[in-house]
Structures are given as C-alpha cells and as structure tokens.
Amino acid sequence: MLKLLIVDDEVYAVEGLRSGVPWSSLGFGDVFEAYNIQDAEDILRRNIVDLVICDIEMPGGDGFELLEWIREYQPDLITLFLTCHADFHYAQRAIQLGCQDYLLKPVDFEEVSAKVRKIAAMIAAEREWKSAQEKAEAFWERKKPLLVERFWQDVLSSRISPTAGPLDAALREYAVPFDRKTMEVWPILISVEQWTQPLSERDEELMEYAVRKVAEEIVLDDGLGCTVQDGSNANAIFIYSRKNGKMNIDTLASRCENFIMYCRNHFYCKVSCYIGESVPLERLKPVYEALLKMEYDNISKSHAVHLYKPGAQSPEQLNAVDLSDWPALIEQGEKDTLRSRIHRSLSELKYEGGRADTLTIYYHSVLQTIYAVLHKRGKTVQEVFAGALPLVQSSSPKSISQMEEWAYRVTDITIRYVQGEEDTIVRKVKLYIQSHLDDRIERAELAELVRLNPAYLSRLFKKETGESLTDYIQAEKMKLSRELLRGSVKPISEIALIAGYGNLSYFSKAFKKQFGVSPMAYRKNRT
Question: Do 125 and 171 sit in the same domain of this protein?
Fold first, then answer.
C-alpha cells in the first residue's frame, strides 16, 4: 500500500481531506498529518512517503519551501499543492519545482480522488519500469551461453572458414546444437532504433540484453535457435530450421510484429526486424550482410518488419564472385588483409582458367562493393575519387595482372576516405550537440544530420569515442549546468530548462548522479 502526507495549518482542512477522500480504495494505507513545514520534514525523514498534499500559504514557512526541501532530499517524492489563489505564477513556480499538479481551495473531494487515482497509476507504472530494469539486471547477471554466441560471431567475421570441414569442427568445439546436414539458418536482424526513456550506457546494455531474451521467447517460440550480438554490437536472431521444413515467412513476420509491439510497450524502445531467408550455414554471411545493408539504407520506415529480397540484393550474374566480407574490411581499414584477398581470388581465377567475361564480373562486383560502402555515407564515387575518376569510369582491365593493380588502387582510396570520413561524422555530431545543449537532442535528429541510420550511427560513435551517444549528451548537458551554477545567478529551475530538462526533479537526480552533489548544494559550496 502507498503512504500519504497531508500538510496544512488548518486542522479542519486536514480532517476534511482525510475523511472526505476514500484513500484505502485509491491504494493508500497510511495517512500522515502535519500542520507546519517543520513537522512535515520530520515525518518525511522518519517514513517512506509516496505522495505529499500540501497547502501553499502557511505561517512559519510556505509550501514552496517544503517543495524545495523535498527536491533536495527526496527528489522522487510526488507532490500535489493546494492554494486559494488562481494565479498562473503560483502554478508556474510549482511546476518548475517539480510539483505534479495543484488544486484550488476549497477542494472538491471527487476532483482530488480523480487526480490521486492518476498519480497512483503513475506510481504503479514507474514501479513496473523499475521492475523491468531489475529483471533486465537479473538477465544480465545470469551466465550467458558464451560458446554459442562466440561461434556465430566467428562465422559472421569469417574467423571460421565457410566450408564443411572447419564448420563441422567448430560446431563440435563450441557445442552448438546445430546439425549442418539436416538444418539451415534463418537470420533475423534486430535493429534497436530509439530508446523512448533516457538511459545510461550501462542501462542500454542491460535493456538490449533483455530485448534479445524476449526475442527468444516471442520469435523463436520454443523452437531451435538463439539470439546473439555480433562483433559490431548489432543484435540478431538465428533460427535453426529443418531442411524442407514447414517454417512459414508469414508466421515469422507475425511473431516479429508481436515482438516489436512488446518492446514498445514494456521496454520503452522502438525496434525493427529485418527477416532474411533460410539458407545453409555456408551461405549465412552474405545473407546477414545483406540484412545489415538494408538496415543502413533504411532512413524512412522504422518500427516495422522488413523482408529480404534476394533478387534485389544480389543480382544473379554476380553470384560467381563472393566479396561479402570486403565492406567490413574496408570499414575496419584492413588494407593488408584486403590485398591478400584480392591476390588470392585473382590467383584462383588464373588457376581455373578464368575467361574475359569472368574478369568483367569480378570488375563489376568490386565496383558494386565500393558503391555500397560509399552509399552508406551518402557519397558518390565522383566525390571520393575526384582526380582518379578514370579508375571507376573507364572500361574494365583486360588481364588478371591489370585487374589486381586496379583493385589495389580503388580499395586503397576507399579505405583512406572511410577512415577520414568516420572521424568527420563524429566531429560533426559533437559540434551539433555542443550548439544545441539547451534543446532535447534525439538520436534520430543526429542521424538525419549525417544521413545515417540511427542504429548504425550509435555503433559508429561508440566505436570511435568509446562512449555511447546517450552518455555523451548527458555528460555535456551536466557540464553546461555546472558552469551556469558556478558562474551565474540564474535560478536552478531556469538552469534546468536551459540544459534541456523540463522537470527539475529529474535534473536534480541527474546532476547528483554525475557530480555526487545536488545542484543547490553545489551552488552553496561555490559561493
């Protein structure tokens, strides 16, 4: 049951509220009384109270003083004010100090009941949110299936060769319950696009872990498979489907839609699902890379299910050349590894007696890879290659040796551009954040600024800075607030608004978490 404190210097007003409102039916078991500010503070020190109903005008200290004390020492406490003045400035100041609502005297008991009922529901929702976080913490602390997750990460990063011998050996070594002879893999990419509640980096990790666990329950639905986080922090579901089985794409899409709605309602986040196709384990990586590309390219339709279209992703005439791991090598700056791949693939063509048309297919496959990498960054080959345009506009090389030299040059130029461009994107995002610290900064807004998918931007920012976007924005807002507290005489409520916090209570909690002291105490110590 909840606990209530009524504060008013008029005895009859307190007794009227106590007897005129059905507190027990609203969920309140204990009702405390105080007739001045000092007694109210004493009660709050000795008891855990969920709601304070307080008169504003009282002798020996008004209700605003009590509210300031509450915001300092019990910032989570919800308050409801009573006043005889229908003056906007009273309401404005109460709201700035974190008051939930206010009522005019003489109070209407039915109106009080209605407002308190909403407050009780809000407290219940907040406790449900905290309960979800605690469950996520419990998920995180349990022992994860590390070997299985490591196997899939190694497959996706090509640390395990996609051929029968190495795959079978790795399946046994990692104890993965997958039979390559009778099973195929159906990949689904989970894109966490936006958190609708402010979370720290640690909280995001916990909630993403909980999201993956819920995906196992809803999407796998007691079937064989697992959820993993790949080497770039993307989340995925791998369904182990029987060859020639009855798994239906419509069934999968329906499960994914239910999963998306569950995440929105219970985990305060928007997600999309990119559903691939059931393929042999040897062909998983190209399909998974295609899903990642779909995610990168999607900047318009969020919170939805997207289906993989093989014909649109991989033209049939290019299937003879597998360059699926090249984008990752380019983005990671693996110049030597990429050169080794080029040399080996062209040596194989030479050994197999490759014809001119095979060389042409190779040429267009390399170009398509370059276009895809640059397209993710909103760039064209004309912008990136500048004076080296003949490299991508002239006819294809006519011999294997010429092709090898050409491939080295175009991939070197692309790698140099990508490495510099990632740094430019992060600097542009940081500059924008610095100039908009007094606004509410959304991840989708930053992604639109640099023309990237929100989930991809978050991973890029974390990769380049070692810090999540959410934590960086939070830290910069707190730095601004600290400077204003130290160098100005602005009210704390106004500083909270300048820093982008409409709620003084949340601002006070965030500031204390960052610097170990409340805003009011920090200002006092600096004077």
Answer: no
Give the containing element (helix H, strand E) for 186.
strand 183-195
pLDDT digits (tens, 9 = 90+) for 280-309: 999 999 999 999 988 876 655 778 999 988
- How far does CA 396 lie from the centroid of its chain? 43
Point out the domain boundary residue: 431, 453, 474.
Answer: 431
Looking at residues 317-339, what average pLDDT do you find? 77
Q: What is the CATH number of the domain that holds 99?
A: 3.40.50.2300
Higher-scoring residue by pLDDT: 443, 382 = 443
Burial of residue 101 (number of CB atoms within 10 Å: 0-12, 13-18, 19+): middle
Residue 325 falls in which region: left (phi positive, over 0), alpha (psi -120 to 50) or beta? alpha
**Same domain for 121 and 7?**
yes
Position 374 in a domain: yes
The residues that bridge with 241 in the sheet, in sequence order, are 184
Cβ atoms of 292 and 235 closer than 8 Å = no
Query: How many domains is the chain partitioned into structurally?
Result: 4
Phi, psi of 145 (to 5 degrees): -75, 75
Tell me the three state secondary structure of residue 6.
strand
What backbone torsions phi and psi does residue 234 show, to the nearest 5 degrees?
Answer: -80, 145
Provide DSSP, 411-460.
HHHHHHHHHHHHHHHHHHHHHHHHHTTTS---HHHHHHHHT--HHHHHHH
Amino acid 300: pLDDT: 55
What are the distances in angstroms from CA 304 to CA 358, 449, 453, 475, 509?
39, 22, 14, 32, 35
What's residue 331's pLDDT? 81
Cβ atoms of 352 and 362 within 8 Å: the answer is: no
CB atoms closer than 10 angstroms to residue 356: 10
**Whole-angstrom Cα distance, residue 295 to residue 302?**
10
Per-residue DSSP letters for 72-116? HH-TT-EEEEEES---HHHHHHHHHTT--EEEESSPPHHHHHHHH
Same-domain pairing of 500 and 480: yes
Q: Is 225:283 a contact under the CB 8 Å cutoff?
A: no
Terminal CA-CA length for the chain: 43
